[in-house]
Amino acid sequence: MRDINVVETKELISRAKNGDSIAFGKLYELYFVPVFRYVYIRVGKRVVAEDIASEVFLKAFGAIGQYEDRGQPLLAYLYTIARNATIDYLRKKREVRIDNVGEIESQEKIEDSVQSREDGQILIRAMNVLSDEAREALTLKYISGLKNAEIAKIMGKSEVNVRKIQSRAIKIMKVTINER
Amino acid sequence: MKDDDEKIIALLENGYTYGEIAQKVPTLKGQIQEFANVIDFLTLNGANIKIGKEKLAAVLEKTDQYVTEKGNDRYSLQKMKYAIPLFAILLLVIGVFAYFSYSGKKSALSNAPSASSTLSQEAPVTGNPDDVAIAIDKIALDEQKTVSAEDSDTSSISADETDITDVEGSVNENDF
Fold first, then answer.
1. For chain A, which terminal residue's Cβ has fewer other Cβ atoms within 10 angstroms, N or C?
2. B69-107 pLDDT tens trace
3. What is the pTM of this model?
4. Are A23 and A16 spatial neighbours (Cβ–Cβ below 8 Å)?
5. Residues B68, A21: C-beta atoms closer than 8 Å
6. What gap in Å lies between CA A123 and CA A136, rounded to an integer?
7. Is B98 exposed, middle or buried (CB count within 10 Å of its CB: 0-12, 13-18, 19+)?
8. From the CA of B39, how many Å to the nearest CA of chain A?
9. Is A56 helix (H, G, I), strand (E, B) or coil?
10. Which of B9, B35, B74 minimises the CB distance to A19?
């Protein structure tokens, strides 16, 4: 993630702010996959993750005029939007699950059997034992490559708290990985 | 109180490598290997999460269409944003021009000499009929003087004509 050229990104953001759709397209190409990964690990479904990641970019483009570089990289800004979109999705999913438990579970089994052949499913299965918060803290740190200070901002927690969440999550993951 | 994993996380965050941590805190040596296994598992499998080129292109196309439409809207809004102040400036310029051209005409009209004043300056009227008669006589006298002078000029011309006739006559005589 860190190899994305900062100067080039700033230039692209500046152009995108002036309504340059080509510049925004380039930002999209640079950042879509990291955002998709983050969402995918949290929701566990490719199709849903693609839709949410697309939604993140549409929202980001709509609000790009208000984006100001205050030391926070664009990726952290995108993760913040992605986080909110994912929380919305998970909340709705929980609400639906209460109403139609049987129907949703059977649909998920079908989807899981298809997805099990795809990349990333091993990771998602291993992370399923973690709480949503722990999964997010690990994903942002070791898959997205953010620093704990940035993660703390995104998650709305202190750095010490983020580190404690990560430490607990790693302990659980050690057990999960050893059991495989 | 930090546990071992928290200590490792904090040291890695501060730029230490696994080897440096093991040297710095020998009690963590056993923990480091297990910790590193988890992190490797996360990073390697995380990097395997990819999106197919075709899928990415399809999603990009969908988003690009939205972005272009949105960009066009924004462009037209930007045009409107500039059009209003430009129109206001244009109105202001027209207003200023109209004001000065009107006041300029008004001052020119007030400074313009009237026909009656010109006439009164050229022909002062005293109201005395005798003065008028004297003036008329003076004009008549002047005209008469001018005519006499012209007459004298005419007589000289006649004399010249006579001379010319003589010359012509002499020429004729010699020739024939």
1. C
2. 666 665 555 556 667 777 788 888 888 888 888 777 666
3. 0.61
4. yes
5. yes
6. 13
7. exposed
8. 7
9. helix
10. B74
